[in-house]
């Protein structure tokens, strides 16, 4: 740090916030010029960041005003800079505000917002932008009132649309209630790297990574060289699961889908390119299996899952497959000669692990991954992926709209296809969660989402996001 001029980190942080604010205003209004931005400024360096960001915005023609929560402890240089640039302080929020920048508390904040801050935030949110809509809220580093380390929200807290966070992703903005308050989280590198402790506790996959990993068809490929995925799902009771997991597998990167199970006629009628058989034993060679969605838990289902697990190829186990595994005990999974991926929701997790994920979902996921030797994808508001070697990822593309029946079947199908196309299990799982979340968002743009909509949205999503590149 000695090599950096004093305040350099704050300047970089503030510049990143200002840049993001300007982009959001441009998106909303076509230009940031003349728009009204309100800074909520707390007593520490978080407030300092907000003030310097306000300075930069004011210099670009934005009308910036600031409410100071603790005038006597306000970052003095920041305030002077804002004032020099034409920004002003006000006692109460004006009625017309296009954007609120939350610089009340950052990583120094503890115990939720106090009363004065809570009422200030409430007033600010009653303002309206010049388009009549509520102001966009951009949080500096983290939304004020959330616990930076755990994501707990012990009292009132700011609800941000966007959080611009610096140097490292604090778990508080990624998991639990804190994640819900953080909106879209953007990590900015301000050069803190050398001073950060250890490895990040949580990694956030981004589109660049996922698009780079996504297998593309190469010249000379045929359907077999691109990988063949086997889908062993559905039952007489749940024939829809067969269709949904197949629908998830088809847009994936594998060159062929084989279906094995009780839904084979329905699959044949709906998807002519799929090779259907009644059971795993008859299915022929595959490079990966997805098994479990709607499979049931009877003897037949157990036999199918055993056959799949005995194959020396990667396997994604979902839904009823997880219930069966829980009955058998998960420790034997370590003996599998190829990778396993488990995709539980909370109740399935509790059956598998013998305990609820609890408040620390990341640690719980990693513990199950270490115990089973499998990559574990714990579904939730924020899907968490843990690897047996102790890396944890959180997927940020999901949407609550995906909390509807059958979307997990689609995810499992897509994941199987990525495994069959040769992606290592951790990347396949991350990539599937990422693309599935995006597809959920895309589907939600045209109305309430069903799992069929998510499956249908996969192809346009993969093209739009660059996972599919025209060969
Ligand atoms: N760590 C770094 O090197 C950098 C930090 N930066 C900014 O600095 C922030 C941290 O700044 P500070 O350490 O000054 O802390 P904060 O600005 O988060 O909090 C300031 C003070 O508020 C008080 N406080 C805590 N909880 C409160 C509550 N519930 N209600 C009212 N007051 C409360 C405490 O006295 C605390 O020290 C980061 O979040 C980030 O925004 C950036 O400027 C970039 C560089």
UniProtKB/TrEMBL annotation:
Biological processes per GO annotation: metabolite repair; nicotinamide nucleotide metabolic process
According to UniProt, the reaction catalysed is: (6S)-NADHX + ADP = AMP + phosphate + NADH + H(+); (6R)-NADPHX = (6S)-NADPHX; (6S)-NADPHX + ADP = AMP + phosphate + NADPH + H(+); (6R)-NADHX = (6S)-NADHX
- The YjeF N-terminal domain extends over 1-198
Which Pfam families does its entry note?
Answer: Carb_kinase, YjeF_N
Q: Which CDD domains match?
A: YXKO-related
Which positions fall inside the YjeF C-terminal domain?
206-465
Q: Where does (6S)-NADPHX bind?
A: 45-49, 106-112, 141, 241, 294, 345, 409
Q: Which GO terms describe its molecular function?
A: ADP-dependent NAD(P)H-hydrate dehydratase activity; ATP binding; metal ion binding; NAD(P)HX epimerase activity
Query: Gene3D superfamilies this protein is in?
Result: 3.40.1190.20, YjeF N-terminal domain
Q: Which cofactor does it need?
A: Mg(2+); K(+)
PROSITE patterns linked to this entry: YJEF_C_2, YJEF_C_3, YJEF_N
Where AMP is bound, by residue?
A: 379-383, 408
Record-linked InterPro entries: Carbohydrate_kinase_pred_CS (IPR017953), CARKD (IPR000631), Nnr (IPR030677), Ribokinase-like (IPR029056), YjeF_N_dom (IPR004443), YjeF_N_dom_sf (IPR036652)
Cofactor note as given: Binds 1 potassium ion per subunit.
EC numbers for this chain: 4.2.1.136, 5.1.99.6
Q: What keywords would UniProt list here?
A: ATP-binding, Isomerase, Lyase, Metal-binding, Multifunctional enzyme, NAD, NADP, Nucleotide-binding, Potassium
Residues annotated as binding K(+) are: 46, 102, 144
Quaternary context: Homotetramer.
HAMAP family linked to this entry: NADHX_dehydratase, NADHX_epimerase
Q: What role is this protein assigned?
A: Bifunctional enzyme that catalyzes the epimerization of the S- and R-forms of NAD(P)HX and the dehydration of the S-form of NAD(P)HX at the expense of ADP, which is converted to AMP. This allows the repair of both epimers of NAD(P)HX, a damaged form of NAD(P)H that is a result of enzymatic or heat-dependent hydration. Catalyzes the dehydration of the S-form of NAD(P)HX at the expense of ADP, which is converted to AMP. Together with NAD(P)HX epimerase, which catalyzes the epimerization of the S- and R-forms, the enzyme allows the repair of both epimers of NAD(P)HX, a damaged form of NAD(P)H that is a result of enzymatic or heat-dependent hydration.
Query: Could you say which protein family the record assigns here?
Result: In the N-terminal section; belongs to the NnrE/AIBP family. In the C-terminal section; belongs to the NnrD/CARKD family.
UniProt-recorded name of the protein: Bifunctional NAD(P)H-hydrate repair enzyme
State the organism of origin: Planosporangium flavigriseum
Q: What is the lineage of its organism?
A: Bacteria, Bacillati, Actinomycetota, Actinomycetes, Micromonosporales
